[in-house]
Design brief:
This protein is mainly alpha-helical. It has 4 helices and 2 strands, in the order E-H-H-H-H-E. The longest helix is centred in the N-terminal third of the chain and has 9 residues.
Protein backbone atom coordinates (compact mmCIF):
# COMPACT_ATOMS: atom_id res chain seq x y z
CA UNK A 1 0.00 0.00 0.00
CA UNK A 2 1.26 3.47 -0.88
CA UNK A 3 -0.26 6.93 -0.97
CA UNK A 4 -1.98 7.70 -4.27
CA UNK A 5 -0.58 9.89 -7.00
CA UNK A 6 -3.57 12.20 -6.45
CA UNK A 7 -2.54 12.56 -2.79
CA UNK A 8 1.09 13.28 -3.71
CA UNK A 9 0.09 15.81 -6.37
CA UNK A 10 -2.31 17.56 -3.99
CA UNK A 11 0.48 18.07 -1.46
CA UNK A 12 3.11 19.13 -3.99
CA UNK A 13 0.85 21.47 -5.98
CA UNK A 14 -0.72 23.08 -2.93
CA UNK A 15 0.25 26.73 -2.47
CA UNK A 16 0.95 26.04 1.20
CA UNK A 17 4.20 24.34 2.20
CA UNK A 18 3.93 20.62 3.00
CA UNK A 19 4.96 21.20 6.62
CA UNK A 20 1.94 23.50 7.14
CA UNK A 21 -0.39 20.87 5.70
CA UNK A 22 1.17 18.25 7.98
CA UNK A 23 0.84 20.40 11.10
CA UNK A 24 -2.79 21.26 10.30
CA UNK A 25 -3.51 17.52 10.00
CA UNK A 26 -1.69 16.79 13.27
CA UNK A 27 1.06 14.86 11.50
CA UNK A 28 4.80 15.36 11.86
CA UNK A 29 6.18 16.95 8.64
CA UNK A 30 8.96 14.35 8.54
CA UNK A 31 6.35 11.59 8.46
CA UNK A 32 4.56 13.32 5.58
CA UNK A 33 7.85 13.46 3.68
CA UNK A 34 8.42 9.75 4.29
CA UNK A 35 4.90 8.95 3.05
CA UNK A 36 5.36 11.06 -0.10
CA UNK A 37 8.71 9.49 -0.92
CA UNK A 38 7.65 5.89 -0.32
CA UNK A 39 9.94 5.44 2.67
CA UNK A 40 6.99 4.84 5.00
CA UNK A 41 4.35 2.44 3.69
CA UNK A 42 0.95 3.20 5.21
CA UNK A 43 -1.51 0.51 6.17
CA UNK A 44 -4.94 0.72 4.56
CA UNK A 45 -6.99 3.39 6.35
CA UNK A 46 -3.88 4.88 8.03
CA UNK A 47 -5.30 7.73 10.14
CA UNK A 48 -2.32 10.00 9.37
CA UNK A 49 -2.93 9.76 5.63
CA UNK A 50 -6.68 10.22 6.07
CA UNK A 51 -6.11 13.32 8.24
CA UNK A 52 -3.86 14.86 5.59
CA UNK A 53 -6.42 13.93 2.94
CA UNK A 54 -9.11 15.77 4.91
CA UNK A 55 -6.97 18.92 4.96
CA UNK A 56 -6.58 18.57 1.17
CA UNK A 57 -10.27 17.67 0.59
CA UNK A 58 -9.41 14.19 -0.71
CA UNK A 59 -11.79 11.37 0.27
CA UNK A 60 -10.11 8.54 2.22
CA UNK A 61 -10.64 6.01 -0.58
CA UNK A 62 -8.66 8.26 -2.97
CA UNK A 63 -5.66 8.65 -0.62
CA UNK A 64 -4.31 5.13 -1.14
CA UNK A 65 -3.35 2.81 -3.97
CA UNK A 66 -1.96 -0.70 -4.00
CA UNK A 67 1.22 0.01 -5.95
CA UNK A 68 2.76 2.58 -8.26
CA UNK A 69 1.53 0.97 -11.52
CA UNK A 70 -2.09 1.75 -10.58
CA UNK A 71 -1.47 5.49 -10.84
CA UNK A 72 -2.75 5.63 -14.44
Amino acid sequence: MIVSQKFIAAVKLNPRPAYEIAWEAGVNPTMLSKLLNGIERPKPDDPRVIAIGQVLNIPPNECFQEKLEEAN
